[in-house]
Structures are given as structure tokens and as C-alpha cells.
Amino acid sequence: MRHLVIVVSALLQTAGAATHAADTSPLPAANYTVSRSWQLGGPGGWDSLSLEASGARLFVGRGDRVDVVETVSGKPVGSIAHTLGVHGIAFAPALTRGFTSNGRSDTVSVFELDTLRVLQEVRVSGKKPDAILYEPRRNLLITANGESANLTVFDAGTMQIVATIALPGPPQFMTADPSGTVYVNIETDPGKLTVIDSKTLAVKSTWPLPGCVNPTGLALDAVHHRLFSVCANQVMAVTDAQSGKQVARVVIGRGPDDAAFDSDLGLVFSSNGLDGTLTVIHEEAPDEYRVTATVTTQVSARTMALDPATHKIFLAAANLGAAPAPTEDQPHPRPSIVPNSFVILVAQPK
Predict the structure, then answer these.
(1) pTM of the model
(2) What tens digit of pLDDT does each residue of 285-309 get?
(3) What is the tens place of the pLDDT at every residue in 224-239?
(4) Contacts of 195 (CB under 8 A, 6+ apart)
(5) Would you call 218 helix, strand, or coil by DSSP?
(6) Rounded to whole angstroms, how far apart are CA atoms 45 and 59?
(7) Contact between residue 293 and residue 30 where contact means Cβ atoms under 8 Å apart
(8) 96 CB contacts (<8 Å, ≥6 apart)?
(9) CA 8, CA 256: separation in Å to the nearest integer?
(10) Alpha-carbon span 186 to 254, nearest angstrom
(11) Domain extents for the chain?
(12) Whole-angstrom Cα distance, residue 285 to residue 48?
């Protein structure tokens, strides 16, 4: 998960400030379509999107706050302030609590799900917490700390740190299976997948991801034990979650950051910010995958949230301006964001 949108300046100069990109991939026509666009505007960039279990509200990390949007109307219904450098949002419905990982303050904010009131802010044991995961089987909250290459594990009830787990590189997205095993993408070249035992709070295995450069988004098919890692080199790597063996690689769009799996439809998704596309992949069999569509979204739409009940996908995007001139401190500066152009796109089956 990368804060704002990390893009290559040369590609941006080609794309300019265009909001949509032409589909240049030799893929089939879309079986999903962008049906709505919610113009939210407001200052700041964005990172991850998280949908609460009911599907009623979408939580959007906006740099120094979390905006909360009603998914029926697309209207803002609240905000969580003082979440500096917020990356991820996680929910613990049984505790009626939510959590944010705040990358610039090295903290986690704990808030009430019903009122959005912040209850406490707790420091992590690493640097720059990025992805965040609630593991319900053992009531754990886990942050993936990118700069310190470790995980902080909290007791979600007391918010006391119970473990710090060293990793073989910077962690990205995480997911957990029903048994409580936690899987973490490691952003290296080639990429890795680290497996954590949530009972012992120790690393069980680290598996290679052949042909995958700097994996970010991670999704799981829990029934067939398959993990889907999206990689910077336009590949989705599919891994057997029991053996660690890679069973498939699928071509996706450019600039992927997020992955999702819809178990009812047997579809895997990759949101691709550089292309401005959503790759839709059908799981024909546990070791066989077919791209069924590439859906035009918007350049910069690299993070998403799936509603498994309605099969809708929510994506965040904005219009991008020119990147500032490179400097010694910032040799690859990020592009500017056109003021008040931030939107949530809603994609759904035709």
C-alpha cells in the first residue's frame, strides 16, 4: 500500500492531467462497468479504502483524516481527525471498535464504530505503520511497519503490545485465513510471502514469489487456499497457501496496488493506477485463471474495496497535474493533485 499515488514521472507526462486512460491491453471487453462517481473533493491525497462488514459505510484514508461515506447515497457522514499519514483502517465488530494505522506519527488510533469518536492513540513498536489487520480468532491487531520491516502485534482489547515480529523486508498488505494464519507480502525484488502463526506469534515460513517484483496488494481464496499477490511488473502471482508453491501468474494492468477476491463469483481483481484500469480475472480452477475483462476506471485509481454482498467495487481517484521539477532531495517527485477532484468510483457487474 503506497501513500497517495506513486507514479513514474515520464508516464505522467504522457498521461498529463487526463482523468481516464485508453485501454492498451489486449484483453477482453469489460463485464464490469463504472456505474457511479461520487465527487467528494476536499484537500489531501488518499491511500486505502475499507468497507465495514455491513457494507453501509466506506472509510477512506485522506492523509491527515479518515472520511466516512454512506454507500447508498455516496454522501459523507463523518470524519476521524488527527490520523497523520493514515494508511489502513481495520474493524473489530465484536469490540465495536475501529483502528487506523498512522504512518507519520507511528501510531494506531482507536475509534468507536458507531460515533467515530477517537478513544486513544497508541504507539507501534516500529516505524511507518502501513497495512493494518484485525485477527478475530485471537483478538489481535497487527500493523505492518514499512520502514522498520516488522509487525507490531497488539491485544486488540487492551491495546498492549504482545509481540514485535521481524520480517525479511518491508511489509505490504496482509490477510488472514479462518484458522488465524497471517500472510504478509514483502516488497522486495523478487517478492516474498511471509507466513505468521498467530498462536505462537512467530514466522512459520517465507516463500519466494518468482516473477513478482515488489508485491503490494494481497487477497485470499480461503476455500481453495490460494493467495493473490499483485506485483509492480504487471503480474498477479498465485500461491498455494498450504505449500507455498506458485501455481500461476496472470498479466494485469500497470501500477497495481490492491487486490480483492469475490468468493461468490470466483473473481479476482487488481486495481491499476497507472493504466486507470481494473483487471477482472476468473478462477476457472484453483490452478487455472483467465482474464475476463479490463475495465476503464481512472488514472490514479489504485486502491479499492469490495462489497461481497453486492459485488460492487469502490475505487479512489483524482485528477493529476504535472509533477514538480526534480530536486536532489526529491529526484522523483509525485504529481500534483487537481484541487477538489477527489472521487470515489463505483464499479459493478453489468
Answers:
(1) 0.91
(2) 999 999 999 999 999 999 999 999 9
(3) 999 999 999 999 999 9
(4) 181, 182, 183, 184, 203, 204, 205, 206, 207, 244
(5) strand
(6) 14
(7) yes
(8) 112, 113, 114
(9) 13
(10) 19
(11) 19-42+272-350
(12) 30
